[in-house]
Design brief:
The chain is mainly β and 88 residues long. The chain is built from 1 helix and 5 strands; from the N terminus they run αβββββ.
Amino acid sequence: MTDTEKRNRRKVRQGTVVSTSMDKTIIVRVDRTMRHPLYDKVIKSSSKLHAHDAVNDAKMGDVVRVMETRPISKSKCWRLVDIVERAK
């Protein structure tokens, strides 16, 4: 397996930037919906990911795509891939 094939298997998530207060770090909220296994009700859940933004390009409210990467710090193991949609 080549190096690029391993890189393509990394997880990619899309979410909204909720904080840019840290230097070179953004916090992205990833929302997902799932059906409850017993009650069959649709449940919304979200998780916050700390992502590395090397050039501080993302702003609050932007929709961004992040990719899994090696641990950069204690809480950062995602990096910004691209900005899908700018905040209005």
